[in-house]
Amino acid sequence: MANISISRRTVLTALAGAGAAALVGCDAARRRTAAPAVAVPDPLLVELEGGLGVLRGAGRQTIPRSLATADGRAIYGTAAAGADTAFFRVDTATGHASRRVALPGRWTPQAVSADGTLVALTADEVGVTEGRPGGRAVTPVLIADAGGVRQRLELPGNFVPEAFTDDRGGLFVLEWLPPAAPDRYRVRVVDLATTAPGPLSTRAKVPVPPGAEEEMRGDGRQAVLAPDRTTLYTLYTHQDDHRHTRDLVSGRPGNVHAFVHTLNLVERWAYCVDLPHPFGAGPASCHTTAVTPDGRRLFVADVASGTVAEISAQELTVRRTATVASGAGLAHSAADHDRLFVGAGPTVRTVDLARLGVAAEWPVPERVTGLVLSRDGARLYVGQPGAVSWHDPATGAELGRAAVTGLVGLRGLAGTA
Predict the structure, then answer these.
(1) Which terminus of the chain has a lower count of CB atoms within 10 Å, N or C?
(2) Checking DSSP bridges between strand 219-225 and strand 196-198, what pairing results, if any?
(3) CA dist 227 to 3, 48, 70, Å?
(4) Cβ–Cβ contacts within 10 Å for residue 331, how many?
(5) Would you say residue 20 has pLDDT above 50?
């Protein structure tokens, strides 16, 4: 769900030659000639300039062209091995890397199953929320686990893997249209037994009829997995004149500017929760979403307008909205049972979920690049360029700070649950 934001494709070539142990050794050698690194209380998944990384105590580990599991316990990494790809799994609690297996050709991990056992890889690094792929008539996809290749697909068209079905028998993908010069996309599911892409079902568990599949042109801003790992929520903005499947089936006009695409990984249906104005009217980067630990509520914040919306995960409806403090900059969020934390620019705000109003606000030295709550709720980690600090969530008081060279953002918690 630890909830890991999936808003970036993942993640030093130092690993290519000698594995994770060599990288840790190099870090230790550097520390002998530099100031001691500050220990981070909780293991963190971070995005570094060199790829996905783990902060574990005073240690730092970077893994290139990689992808973390939903629970943050492992990272699947890749490295060039001649004309092939070395593929391995890293235990984020210990830093131990599994035996490397060779994948024929060059591959990058794009999606990992909710149970953390299967990985879908493609030849490029364009992820679901990272722009559009180049034109192509066929998309090769490799399905692998820690033991090696399990299946190779040759999908006719232009596809980007998004997630596995809960039973690992299907792969949700974005199909970009037209394949040679893509400008829009739709969500489909590939049956791994037949290798055939097909439409999803509606929320009523009825297959979407021909011609009624939604085609989207906007920005996939951010994706979060529900804590029980059965539902994937993706926030989309700038969907001018977009029509949902329900509108296409009924003949109703559609014109929404932002919505949450809800993908049920168990029953293979999708449903879009429309967000009211002003969501989607401002920059996509000012929007952020977070789910509560019990999975019952999803919150979307637009810092440009200062608007927050609460969505019921059971009803898939917007229950209420409120206008809180506005801001500017790339937005990030995290939630517990009672509070929503929103960071943008050099400011962090706490929104009280009972009244949906700002309860606290505090500055940080530099712009926020990510927010992560510790599992016990005692620390709120705030990413900033080149550093991570941790704060008392109730007061904002800084409890500690560690310099992290090349830190781009915080991704979630690592290690054991």
Answers:
(1) C
(2) unpaired
(3) 6, 25, 9
(4) 25
(5) no
